[in-house]
Amino acid sequence: MLATSSFRVLNSFRRTLLSRSLQTSVAARNIPSPASFPAPPPPVHENPSLKPEPQQPLQQQPDANPYPSLDNAATTNGPTTHFGFRTVPEEAKESLVKQVFGAVAPSYDLMNDVMSAGVHRLWKDHYIRTLAPGPDTTLLDVAGGTGDIAFRFLDYVKSQHGSMGGAKVTVVDINPAMLEVGKKRAVQLGHSDPERLSFMEGNAENLSQIADASVDAYTIAFGIRNCTHVDRVLAEAYRVLKPGGRLAVLEFSSVNNPLLAPLYEFYSFNVIPAMGDLVAGDRASYAYLVESIRKFPTQQAFRDMIVDAGFKVEGAGWEDLTFGVAAIHSGFKI
Ligand SMILES: C[S@@+](CC[C@H](N)C(=O)[O-])C[C@H]1O[C@@H](n2cnc3c(N)ncnc32)[C@H](O)[C@@H]1O
């Protein structure tokens, strides 16, 4: 019953999103989105990392604590951060995020298709087209998980340039379970040449294995909102890029359409956790994923963080996808 009604909601969403996403991606290019979702967030300070905790709408209280390691969180005296809608000690967040992606790894790709009705594929295709890598581009795909961006990068280079030239991509992720799925998919998809594609366990906040000024492009898709210190992630991106190199961030963002906003709100907080339960047997991890989207800075605030990290941005600095459900932010190391 729930599956049937969820499927209907999904299908109608899919039709709306598919028909509007390409329109939006062109029409909204470089146009700032003033509105935010679901309720206007509190004022964003100059430094978004200092912004106050947003007030939670009443219906969005966290579920009962599924993470035992959070039980002592309230007693900490040290710095805190958010993990979804919960406040946790900063040092706890990384392992909590690891628990989430360790749990969802086996069903991650299936759930992406189910939750977005396949729209994430269009966003990722567009993301790589926007990056427009050349035949010799070296890419670092951070928080690369099961390899979606890396595979698209290699496929794009081959189809656009006829041959692979010197193109190569390194996928870095903090979670070995996600990387293991990625390695298996690489073999299945014919991307098993280690000279072209490699997988590396590492933290986006400290890419000590990657040399300064060593890559042409840096991508991070749906990963940065899970990191504890977004400013450190951006600083590392800046360090590893060559002069002239490009940062491209694909992330969920703030919906700017007043008609879509309440539907998206309902879908996010009611349908997605239920789907997580049904499809992956894991409601809590998918509730976290939705909550973490709400805690991520708005398009403008994130663009300001990119500029603060030293990047040059063109125009508004981002492109909204599907009314701001997701956005691509770009910056250049000049
Ligand atoms: C939503 S998945 C995105 C995977 C992939 N980029 C995609 O678009 O399908 C988020 C990924 O970020 C990774 N991640 C979270 N925190 C990280 C960190 N600090 N450093 C590196 N990876 C991290 C998770 O392990 C997970 O694989």
TrEMBL record:
Answer whether the UniProt record assigns the keyword Membrane to this protein.
yes
KW Transmembrane helix (keyword) present:
no
Q: Which residue intervals are annotated with compositional bias (Low complexity) in the record?
A: 49-62
Domain of life, per the record? Eukaryota
Q: Where is the composition biased (Pro residues)?
A: 35-45
CDD domains registered for this protein in UniProt: AdoMet_MTases
Q: What is its main location?
A: mitochondrion
GO terms under cellular component: extrinsic component of mitochondrial inner membrane
Entry keywords, A to Z = Membrane, Methyltransferase, Mitochondrion, Mitochondrion inner membrane, S-adenosyl-L-methionine, Transferase, Ubiquinone biosynthesis
**What is a single molecular function from GO for this protein?**
2-methoxy-6-polyprenyl-1,4-benzoquinol methyltransferase activity
Q: Where along this sequence does the record place binding of S-adenosyl-L-methionine?
A: T146, D173, N203, A204
* Segments crossing the lipid bilayer: none
Question: What EC number(s) does the entry state?
Answer: 2.1.1.201
NCBIfam families xrefs: MenG_MenH_UbiE
- Entry's PANTHER family? 2-METHOXY-6-POLYPRENYL-1,4-BENZOQUINOL METHYLASE, MITOCHONDRIAL, METHYLTRANSFERASE
| Xref: HAMAP family | MenG_UbiE_methyltr
Q: What is its biological role?
A: Methyltransferase required for the conversion of 2-polyprenyl-6-methoxy-1,4-benzoquinol (DDMQH2) to 2-polyprenyl-3-methyl-6-methoxy-1,4-benzoquinol (DMQH2).
The protein's name is: 2-methoxy-6-polyprenyl-1,4-benzoquinol methylase, mitochondrial
Q: What is the phylogenetic placement of the source species in the record? A: Eukaryota, Fungi, Fungi incertae sedis, Chytridiomycota, Chytridiomycota incertae sedis
- Give the gene symbol: COQ5
